[in-house]
Design goal:
alpha+beta; about 25% strand
Length: about 80
Amino acid sequence: MKVKLAYPDYIVEITEKEVFLFNGRLISAPLDEIVEYATGKEAVLPEELKKIAIDIFTILSELGFEDVLSRYYILDETSRSALA
């Protein structure tokens, strides 16, 4: 899996295990940390990635990557039905 997102000031690339943000410099973090932060848990992340963590979670959900998300986040029945 590889997903790319374009923002006005940077580009984000999401792989199965890592997220890369290019804004004149390379910033990266493990996907599991991003998902944990997006779901309300504490995570050590650069501010740039904290700002878009929910976008990453949302786009993976919308594109049907439930299998990827479920590796890092236990989906309850409400979450599963929302993703369907």
